[in-house]
Amino acid sequence: MLNILESAYTSMALELAPETRHSAFVLINCDLGCKEEIISDLQKIGGVENARETFGAYDIVAEVHAGSESELREIITWRIRRLGRVRSTLTLKGIEGQSYR
């Protein structure tokens, strides 16, 4: 799982302009049997650019981008965490100013 996240984060970092986009991966645990429903709901949230089912300690990983830190916080706190049947989340925030180009 860690290798997948490292790979995804590296590819995401290559595409971002650090001054204009804020990014995070949100690892999500949900109720049993509702992954597809939550992924469908995530895809309707502005700023969520990708959501996938995972194996391991977390059920879903969502890639989130926003134009500001406060917008990113708003998406994660008030939209993703408030989805029905989401039990817990862990946010991996991108380090602004880091570039792998």
TrEMBL record:
InterPro entries: Dimeric_a/b-barrel, Tscrpt_reg_AsnC/Lrp_C. Residues 26-91 form the Transcription regulator AsnC/Lrp ligand binding domain. This is Transcriptional regulator. It comes from Cenarchaeum symbiosum (strain A).
